[in-house]
Amino acid sequence: MSIDRIRHAGLREKVMSAEAAAEFVKNGMNLAITGFTGAGYPKALPTAIANKAKALHAQGEKFSIGMVTGASTAPECDGVLAEANAVHFRSPFQSDPTLRNGINAGNIAYQDMHLSHVEQQMRQGFYGKFDIAIVEATAITENGELVFAMGIGHGAEAVKNADKVIIEINEALAEGLEGMHDIYADVGLPPHRKPIPIVGAFDRIGTPALALDPNKVVAIVLTNGGDRNSKFAEPDDVSKRIAAQVIDFLDHEVKAGRLPKSLLPLQSGVGNVANAVMAGLLDAPFEDLTGYTEVLQDGMLDLILAKKMKTASATALSFSPDALQRFNENIEFLKDKIILRPMEISNNPEIIRRLGVIGMNSMIEADIYGNVNSTHVMGTRMMNGIGGSGDFTRNGFFSFYVSPSTAKGGAISAIVPMVSHHDHTEHDVMFIVTEQGMADLRGKAPKDRAKLIIENCSHPDYRDMLRDYYDRALVASQKAGGIHTPHILLEALSWHQRFVETGDMRIK
Amino acid sequence: MSIDRIRHAGLREKVMSAEAAAEFVKNGMNLAITGFTGAGYPKALPTAIANKAKALHAQGEKFSIGMVTGASTAPECDGVLAEANAVHFRSPFQSDPTLRNGINAGNIAYQDMHLSHVEQQMRQGFYGKFDIAIVEATAITENGELVFAMGIGHGAEAVKNADKVIIEINEALAEGLEGMHDIYADVGLPPHRKPIPIVGAFDRIGTPALALDPNKVVAIVLTNGGDRNSKFAEPDDVSKRIAAQVIDFLDHEVKAGRLPKSLLPLQSGVGNVANAVMAGLLDAPFEDLTGYTEVLQDGMLDLILAKKMKTASATALSFSPDALQRFNENIEFLKDKIILRPMEISNNPEIIRRLGVIGMNSMIEADIYGNVNSTHVMGTRMMNGIGGSGDFTRNGFFSFYVSPSTAKGGAISAIVPMVSHHDHTEHDVMFIVTEQGMADLRGKAPKDRAKLIIENCSHPDYRDMLRDYYDRALVASQKAGGIHTPHILLEALSWHQRFVETGDMRIK
User: Fold this and answer.
1) Using CB atoms, which residue from A114, A442, A493 is nearest to B490?
2) A121 touches B at CB < 8 Å
3) How high is the ipTM of this complex?
4) Please, what are the domains in chain A?
5) C-alpha distances out from residue A460 to A302, A344, A410, A447, B295, Å
């Protein structure tokens, strides 16, 4: 029974229905809700809040909330709330189709934030006061401490920061999760901060559960539901070719003595291509790999189960249904090989730089000078958000951006004259990799980068168009007084406009 | 006598003329040359190398070098080398007119880098091998340790990294500089890095001088010349209005209990406006200020001399002639109030985030969504470079960008529909301040930012044009499927193109 997971007698008395708990949520409130890449989000409260919103709206009353999560949640959280028009502000990351539509229709204000900044900005009061935290948990200990679920994200800060706390205890979660979390509570605010004492990717620096103020807990709701476990695509030929190039390069660096045979701690972004790189490492000539990432997906789990990877640190576990089963079945083996941390620690610039994390993230597009767009389709439409990609790109030892060279059956080029939105600048991006090839941008001036990216990474269908743009940009920019970064200002974004108008970036 | 400053007998034997020392520099070599914002650059060698280049070029021979400095140098360094066509690669920052022309004519490859990344990328081999380091110094100790000059920048890494070392001892430097430097040599490479043990902005963690391998020192040249000490403009009305708004905001935060009365450590970018903010602090209601910055200019010096600022940490001292005199005259008073560090430490993300540094930097332009261009004029022409602005913007407690709302007598607006080059993204920039007003972008979605920036920061001459662009962008982007970040793709950069064509961003 779920209630047995509440091992603190006083807190058992707070158990109630989701509908009763939703009564604490009032119009205009600012909520901190756990959830990170479809893991660790509340399963029952959002629907209860959405139903309340619909009922109030039907009566002509206003009802909407601001919500700050760890990262993306799921249809039963972001989806139901957006569908009920119950959200007026959302941060820092999302990927739900209904919520995305609300954002792109201009109805929901969305602030797209570096994940490593969220908890400190909550603590600093940059988001204003949080009225209620809604937190998914595996259990509550005898001492009234909260054991988080499959993801932590900003959960520890949410609980500390909010005036009231509502906890969902999810019986579907493996009890073996207890002990996997590492809650470091001492980040604090300047000028009283100390170094974060992680020197190895698997160092434990905190406690397995979070101390709770029982007086702040206004409701506990018992649930039994799975996370948003979506299946990964089997690595296709394009993904495998991208993965092979990344792995070849790393192997080359090992052979040149510039990387240890165990590499450096790996970060892998969300999605099929990033997952394919992890899958490729199963057969790569490296041993004793380590992970220091935000989301641990199937690929990294299988590296651990295959004993290619020794340990991994993350803030959330996001698995396909099959991988979840492997995780649950092997949880005793995995217990001393996986750490879940608050995202302030998993994505912390201090730690990422110190450890020398190798960051690999997917992109929407890169331009010929190495700027990367991770967030906006055709410059104006929000896809998901920047997530932790900037935390790793800016501070890591290596920063890879991977993508197939085209999308939509060839109608979109992932390599464009100028990205239509800039999330990672030429100052930060080190490697662009497509199935066509790789561009190593380190120590290169913009014009040298352009040649490499066009010749190595672009799809043959677009290569002549890119060469033509670059050649004409050299002439146009000379007239404008400088050809450090050649561009034709009125044409730089024309590929995107052509796609909007004709459905194809190619000139017919 | 300069030679008395070489207190190590063995190294005295390495003294020679600049011309003789320049013979070590061969065509195609990769040089690490000290210098940071017109301080600490070699005064004699560059001219000797330039003369050698000219002589060789006259004989039809090739001669050019790659050079990585701390930041900008001066006409006697970057200037003479560029004028002699002796530079084929330059990184990470520059501000010399002759060098800039070479870059913008497409003759010199320039990589514009975050300064905090330079030393680790040298150590990691991302720039290739360094043949020679040329380093300005105040003295060499009895034990053969190098005492740096008015700036350190990447000097410590340059000496360690390069095969050979050439030292210039500059007699014009105050001997009292000895003891002001703090060389922390233990940053190292992953996976063996430890926390950098700075917990207060003035903590000393290293040694006052750098241990030298005497066998690597191939030449010592004696010089007697001043740094590039240019006069700051007296704060004008526009600068004072910008400064007043920053100070009012900080005062408001102190009164609200969100900042201590001593604020948090201050970083101030280079230039007149940033200097004006420091000047404004002389009369502000704060006490016991501290500085944690890359360049310490007149404004911060005067805060220390006036006992408004307790201590300051920097990597270089860049003064006007008057301020240099005040510095030299008060050097005994200042000795326990100023620390000079390697730029890997002054600009380190770990330290900037831990200390909660308040970053204030100038910009070329910002757009209506809060993206900032620090480097490119009209999108293609390199001005100076990003310097450390990104290090502080990305990791600081607050990130301010300041600029007059117009330039060139009103022909250029500092607030544009889309910046023509992105150095700091909407994810990082917190405050835009012009003499018109301030926009607080924290916790704001793009459309809310646009209203704030247009209404608060833009110049009245451009406000209607910006409102008109934004209103039409809302319509255009709806057609393109999303109005999260409204833009008209073919018009977004048209203001810059109009300036290139007509010399004015305004529609006549």
Assistant:
1) A493
2) yes
3) 0.97
4) 9-223 (3.40.1080.10), 237-465 (3.40.1080.20)
5) 35, 42, 10, 20, 47
